[in-house]
């Protein structure tokens, strides 16, 4: 038997991490290193004073070992006090707070280093600590709760990365000191027993108050206003559960981190942002985080000229709502692949079906229908399921140039969805596009106006409204709707269609350069989309670029050998002269 060269012992481990070290390194790396080393010496001194030792420094992280959980907590309070005092003496931009996690358990000791799950748990729970604060595990809490002048806020149980069992996490603060946890987590409800975010069922999303950077009052008002608009807009999407402003706006201090805030609010996703003003310009940086794994799902920066502050606020809010709607949907689709097919719930069946639908292949759309139909059998009154079935049959009707039976099914599912939820914009939009396909753009406008009244951020309804106006002969009035759709949904899977409609509108107002460039953008997304290339050929011919038009015509006839003029004559323009206008443009290239 090999000689054992390690020992096991019970120990309390402190994991200590510098907050904002990378940011300070970017500002002034030498000053950042000096600041870290100064604070590291304070930590080492406090740990030594209370009978512990530091070990395993790695970058901006420090570990410490104690024989007594009580002394470990006292040491952490001591060095946090000293670091707070030191930070108060330097410029705010150069302050370096620390987060601390403390866990007690069995460790392996070898050559002065410590190993084991209980070491890893200390590091994991440190991520839940507020800046300048500390967290303890339940095992440490049992040892110290009656022996120190400390108070605790229970955050509940969490599944930690690479840790088999859930771990209960508490924020600790010294009674009567600035390190009390109560002001930081006043909105966190006490947790008795296990609390974990469910991986099943419709997700909840929380929008935190956006931070106004710059100290100007109107920036703060605008930041709050945009966050409020996003809450309102997301609630109109109907498929997401949105945490009320009265709850999410209690978390103005973001030092707790998204995982703690999300757990407190019961939200799977957290939206946060910062607004800055510089003269006549504003910059909004916003992000979406998945609380369950801490992953940043999406982030984007919006730079705008500050002209009409109220109009600008509405535009940015609508744009963010539309993007968030799709990003959360995408994340939820991916999440369903963690669940076996036979275990999928109704909600998950819908998301998995949407994943296949978005692939836009014949095989995938058939698989999508299987998921939607299974979900319908399980819950025939679910508005989410009914809307997906309406969309599925509309998509097939569009591919078949207005199949009447499919359009009947769109109407059937959409009307039932309205009975289930009269404030859902999607059924109104589905009824509107059905009227468009049936050559009734006038009645389509009524449905689409209702959809946009309910949800102004609904990009699909905006695009459909543009199509209805275009079919009614108002090409100039249609263009703003298509442009708005581009703004609201810049990464939409069906964007090629919206751009094709915009190219048609530019053709009718005889803006040939815009028609050509817009058709090109549509073809970049879907090279096989016949309508965009058809419009491009006509626009090139009208522009006098006959040679380019003939080259495009060669590509067109190769890709669409079965094309006939009837395909264009089918388009339900109210005035059939519009169909002949487009065909005449195309004929110029022959």
TrEMBL record:
Signal peptide: none annotated. Gene3D superfamilies: Nucleotide cyclase, Tetratricopeptide repeat domain, TolB, N-terminal domain. Pfam families: Guanylate_cyc (PF00211). It comes from the Bacteria. Residues 12-126 form the Guanylate cyclase domain. InterPro entries: A/G_cyclase, Adenylyl/Guanylyl_Cyclase_3/4, Nucleotide_cyclase, TPR-like_helical_dom_sf. PROSITE patterns: GUANYLATE_CYCLASE_2. Coiled coil: none annotated. PANTHER family: ADENYLATE CYCLASE, TERMINAL-DIFFERENTIATION SPECIFIC-RELATED, PH-SENSITIVE ADENYLATE CYCLASE RV1264. This is Adenylate/guanylate cyclase domain-containing protein. It comes from Mesorhizobium qingshengii.
């Amino acid at each position: 038997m090999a000689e054992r060269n390690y020992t096991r012992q019970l120990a309390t481990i402190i994991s200590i991490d510098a907050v904002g070290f990378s940011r300070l390194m970017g500002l002034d790396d030498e000053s950042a290193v000096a600041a870290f080393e100064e604070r590291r010496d304070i930590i080492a001194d406090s740990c030594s004073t209370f009978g512990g030792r530091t070990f395993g420094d790695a970058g901006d992280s420090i570990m410490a070992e104690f024989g007594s959980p009580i002394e470990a907590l006292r040491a952490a309070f001591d060095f946090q006090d000293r670091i707070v005092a030191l930070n108060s003496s330097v410029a705010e931009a150069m302050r370096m707070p620390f987060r601390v996690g403390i866990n007690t358990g069995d460790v392996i000791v070898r050559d002065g280093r410590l190993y084991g799950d209980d070491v890893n748990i200390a590091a994991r729970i440190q991520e839940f600590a507020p800046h300048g604060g500390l967290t303890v595990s339940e095992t440490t809490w049992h040892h110290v709760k009656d022996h120190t002048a400390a108070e605790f806020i229970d955050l509940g149980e969490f599944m930690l990365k690479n840790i088999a069992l859930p771990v209960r996490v508490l924020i600790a603060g010294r009674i009567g000191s600035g390190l009390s946890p109560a002001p930081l987590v006043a909105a966190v409800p006490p947790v008795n027993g296990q609390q974990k975010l469910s991986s099943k069922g419709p997700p909840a999303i929380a929008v935190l108050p956006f931070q106004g950077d710059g100290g100007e009052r109107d920036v703060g008002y605008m930041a709050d206003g945009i966050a409020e608009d996003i809450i309102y807009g997301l609630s109109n999407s109907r498929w997401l559960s949105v945490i009320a402003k009265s709850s999410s706006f209690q978390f103005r201090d973001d030092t707790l981190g998204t995982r703690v805030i999300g757990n407190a609010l019961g939200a799977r996703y957290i939206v946060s942002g910062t607004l800055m003003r510089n003269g006549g310009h504003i910059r909004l940086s916003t992000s979406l985080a998945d609380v369950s794994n801490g992953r940043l799902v999406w982030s984007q920066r919006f730079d705008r000229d500050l002209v009409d502050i109220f109009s600008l606020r509405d535009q940015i809010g609508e744009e963010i709502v539309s993007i968030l709607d799709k990003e959360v949907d995408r994340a939820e689709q991916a999440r369903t692949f963690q669940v076996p097919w036979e275990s999928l719930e109704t909600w998950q069946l819908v998301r998995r079906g949407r994943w296949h639908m978005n692939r836009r292949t014949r095989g995938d759309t058939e698989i999508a229908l299987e998921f939607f139909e299974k979900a319908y059998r399980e819950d025939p009154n679910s508005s989410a399921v009914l809307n997906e079935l309406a969309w599925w049959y509309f998509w097939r009707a569009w591919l078949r140039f207005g199949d009447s039976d499919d359009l009947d099914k769109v109407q059937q599912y959409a009307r039932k969805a309205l009975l289930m939820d009269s404030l859902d914009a999607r059924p109104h939009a589905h009824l509107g596009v059905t009227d468009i396909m049936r050559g009734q753009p006038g009645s389509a406008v009524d449905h689409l106006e209702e959809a946009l009244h309910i949800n102004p951020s609904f990009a699909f309804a905006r695009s459909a409204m543009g199509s209805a106006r275009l079919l009614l002969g108002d090409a100039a009035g249609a263009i703003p709707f298509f442009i708005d759709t581009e703004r609201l949904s810049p990464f939409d899977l069906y964007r090629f269609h919206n751009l094709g409609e915009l190219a048609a509108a530019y053709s009718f107002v005889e803006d040939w350069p815009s028609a050509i460039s817009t058709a090109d953008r549509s073809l970049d997304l879907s090279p096989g989309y016949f309508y965009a290339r058809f419009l491009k050929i006509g626009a090139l011919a009208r522009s006098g670029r006959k040679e380019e038009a003939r080259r495009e015509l060669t590509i067109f006839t190769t890709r669409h050998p079965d094309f006939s003029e009837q395909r264009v004559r089918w388009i339900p323009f109210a005035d059939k002269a519009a169909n002949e206008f487009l065909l005449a443009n195309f004929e110029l290239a022959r």
